[in-house]
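Example 3.2
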Amino acid sequence: MTDGPKQSSLSSRVLEGDVQAIARLLTRVENDDEVGRAALEILLPHTGSAHLIGVTGPPGGGKSTLVNELIRSWRADGKRVAVIAIDPSSPLTGGATLGDRIRMMEWHADPGVFIRSMASRRFGGGLAQNTLAAAMVFDAAGFDPVVIETVGSGQDEVAIAELALTTLLVQVPGMGDSVQTLKAGALEIGDIVVVTKADRPEANDLSRDLRRLQTLTFGEPESAAGWQPPVIRTSSLTREGIPDLVAAIGDHRRWLTESGELDVRLRRIAATQLAARVQSDLMDELTSPIRHSLFATMVDEILAKAITPQRASQLLLALISHEERRS
């Protein structure tokens, strides 16, 4: 592909850390247009340094407030921090509701912090379709770490583990029996389990129950192999546990490198990104003007109980494959 002057200029400015250029490119990336795609190809060789941190947990769990305190600690250490806040889509515009950016407004004048809200739209697990592409832009621009905060819809957020190198699973006391509401597979995604609002009296009980559940899931810490997810209590009011959490994230990052797990997770992230891209491109192809009538016909056939969705999908994919062979 020949790089146009617009893509080259925009990419160069992003590599220089130009905030306006970063914002413009993120919009291009989220819109998935040709300028955005071409710019990502230019930026690709400059990526690979940022640590991707996923933050997930139930609604009202204090995820944004927790991220705000993490930013404070990282900035004190001189780190440039990017946050991709996956917001629920507006029912009117399909865009992000910007709730997370409102909660982090204190950083709006700090050039070392970039917070971007992205609409969840219809992407699985509450993650915006181009989340990883946006993370690439931040990575190339020199931000490290890059935090991905997901829509708070409880255990549907296991998808974050496919995108992050370190995943923080947030749990909050005072919301009934939180441990009982953990679904299968949810605890396993947390490289670090964070109990927020530690100033509440229920926080100790929740932390204890989570440690017991970890023992049932993974075995005794002394006998279990690999990384042992710590349970850390934090309070944004008193900043209790925030230094411990920052240290645990650093420990996990080092463990990834020393154990060889980093390569495993990077491959998983690449595979997830490719699968999402293929799915998106296939849907674009199937719903393009040239094939829209066929796609609509298949929908009608499904509604008429004349064909199953599985069979309809096979036919559509077979059609694309046949046309590719003929061309």
